[in-house]
TrEMBL record:
<protein>
    <submittedName>
        <fullName>Transcription initiation protein</fullName>
    </submittedName>
</protein>
<dbReference type="InterPro" id="IPR005545">
    <property type="entry name" value="YCII"/>
</dbReference>
<dbReference type="Pfam" id="PF03795">
    <property type="entry name" value="YCII"/>
</dbReference>
<comment type="similarity">
    <text>Belongs to the YciI family.</text>
</comment>
<dbReference type="InterPro" id="IPR011008">
    <property type="entry name" value="Dimeric_a/b-barrel"/>
</dbReference>
<feature type="domain" description="YCII-related">
    <location>
        <begin position="1"/>
        <end position="108"/>
    </location>
</feature>
Length: 111
């Protein structure tokens, strides 16, 4: 099953002083196991553009639309047997301690 894992900042990170796991090792391990299909860090929110259409009018604005302290800073597309495996992959991501991971299964579109 495919999952999109959003890597997000968090206003309340873990206070454990031990060193963060190595992100390069995490990527290498999950790529080699076939669990990570793709992933990337995102540019800062200052580089974002929000696009909406309202009443047939195109509305384009700089930055994210939502005012929030937590922002998406990266993503990984995962291939896991089930949600339990996806949770284990997310748990071991270095940003799970400093931020938060949001897992969403990819939905099949009908038609």
């Amino acid at each position: 099953m495919k999952y999109m894992m959003f890597v997000c900042t968090d206003a309340e990170p873990d206070t454990d002083p031990s060193p963060d796991p190595d992100i390069y090792a995490w990527v290498e391990d999950n790529d080699a196991a076939g669990r990570r299909l793709q992933g990337s860090v995102l540019a800062p929110t200052s580089a974002a553009t929000t696009v909406r259409v309202r009443n047939g009018q195109l509305l384009v604005s700089d930055g994210p639309f939502a005012e929030t302290k937590e922002v998406i800073v990266g993503f990984d597309l995962l291939e896991c047997a089930d949600l339990d495996e996806a949770i284990e992959v997310a748990r071991t991501h270095p940003m799970a301690r400093r931020g938060r991971m949001e897992l969403r299964p990819l939905a099949e579109l009908d038609g």
